[in-house]
Amino acid sequence: MGVLPKGLSSVLAKAPTDVVILSSLRTPITRSYKGHLKDAYPEELLSVVLRATLDKVPELNPSKIEDVAVGVVLSELGGSKAARMALNHVGFDSSSTSLYTVNRACSSSLQAIASIAASIRTEAIDVGIGAGMESMTRNYGSRAIPTSYWPALKESPVKDARDCVMPMGLTSENVASRYAVSREDQDTFAVKSHQLAAQARAEGRFKEEIVPVTTQYQEVDKAGNKVGEPQTVTVTEDDGIRPTASLEGMAKLKPAFKPDGASTAGNSSQVSDGAAATLLMRRSTATALGLGDRIIGKFVAANTVGCKPDEMGIGPAVAIPKLLGQLGLENKDVDRWEINEAFASQAIYCLRELGLEEAWKDGKVNPDGGAIALGHPLGATGARMVSTLLHGLGRTGGEVGVVSMCVGTGMGMAGVFVRE
């Protein structure tokens, strides 16, 4: 990781070697199979945010962007060829800009951002983009579980090996039962996520981070039959938010993963489609290119830790303390937290374990809602959260923010950012 700043003053200090952020944008996040992006391709969504990134900083010659990392979990061939095609399609210089894809499950695009930041920090490149894309509508057929793999692993004597393919919903149930997270607590948390997101959308808080997407949409009935002809639509808002969500409504939902469980479709993250992208460069490069006034924040550091695969949801509770400790920061130094709501069970556990329950009540944790309301397009979620974090800090005048999520197969990832 190199030499990290120690203490709040060091984290906030500015230096020519800083990895700074000039743009952080996303598409709307819409419901898979039902939302208005259900017929869009993941690389189509990626192309929209990549083009918007160039348009956001028109003074930057696209040829200066040397590398692009794209988080993606479900796409064929890891999405690498289609993503590269999308990059070239929207005006990047194929002779100067390279691309690769990253798959660290739910943290893929946070990993993409961290990887680009590392390349900048080690002077391998000066300018890059960390992005993410996912169409769960198109690519979620196996429920993100491999259908063909080495048979010896299915009967491995090592439980942690077998548990890597445990359905995520069962890991949520494990967290709930092991750490006493009740169904009522989960439903209450989910309702608040929708209420916060609904308020944020109504007040226009997402407008600066969202790039509209114009695409084809085919309406279907409940049986999946086509209704009418395909339409050209322009999607401008997240569509999974339910302003009328209530405890009474949540309580009526049946457990989704085991008959006597507590995790439901209502208190779990939504299956979603979307893309996001963040533009990074060295501060000295931004200054030399005359882009100093375009800086909106900086990447400080990120880390990834392991945990038991059968309770992967606890990942943020392990990753965050380690990263804050490495930076000499405490919870009180953080102005805003974006902690992915894969399931209400694990989000609640992490808040309790991290000592952030009061911060959540005070509107410092997921103040604009989280994945339960907004959705969780696996490969794009990390970059979406970074965009929401930086724009949110900009509105409130906060400086230090943390993004964190659990990761399937048993990991947690966290990143620290500063808004400028």
TrEMBL record:
<keyword id="KW-0630">Potassium</keyword>
<feature type="domain" description="Thiolase N-terminal">
    <location>
        <begin position="19"/>
        <end position="284"/>
    </location>
</feature>
<comment type="similarity">
    <text>Belongs to the thiolase-like superfamily. Thiolase family.</text>
</comment>
<dbReference type="InterPro" id="IPR020615">
    <property type="entry name" value="Thiolase_acyl_enz_int_AS"/>
</dbReference>
<feature type="domain" description="Thiolase C-terminal">
    <location>
        <begin position="295"/>
        <end position="417"/>
    </location>
</feature>
<dbReference type="Pfam" id="PF00108">
    <property type="entry name" value="Thiolase_N"/>
</dbReference>
<dbReference type="Pfam" id="PF02803">
    <property type="entry name" value="Thiolase_C"/>
</dbReference>
<dbReference type="InterPro" id="IPR002155">
    <property type="entry name" value="Thiolase"/>
</dbReference>
<dbReference type="InterPro" id="IPR050215">
    <property type="entry name" value="Thiolase-like_sf_Thiolase"/>
</dbReference>
<comment type="pathway">
    <text>Lipid metabolism; fatty acid metabolism.</text>
</comment>
<dbReference type="InterPro" id="IPR016039">
    <property type="entry name" value="Thiolase-like"/>
</dbReference>
<keyword id="KW-0012">Acyltransferase</keyword>
<protein>
    <recommendedName>
        <fullName>acetyl-CoA C-acyltransferase</fullName>
        <ecNumber>2.3.1.16</ecNumber>
    </recommendedName>
</protein>
<keyword id="KW-0808">Transferase</keyword>
<dbReference type="InterPro" id="IPR020610">
    <property type="entry name" value="Thiolase_AS"/>
</dbReference>
<dbReference type="InterPro" id="IPR020617">
    <property type="entry name" value="Thiolase_C"/>
</dbReference>
<dbReference type="InterPro" id="IPR020616">
    <property type="entry name" value="Thiolase_N"/>
</dbReference>
<dbReference type="InterPro" id="IPR020613">
    <property type="entry name" value="Thiolase_CS"/>
</dbReference>
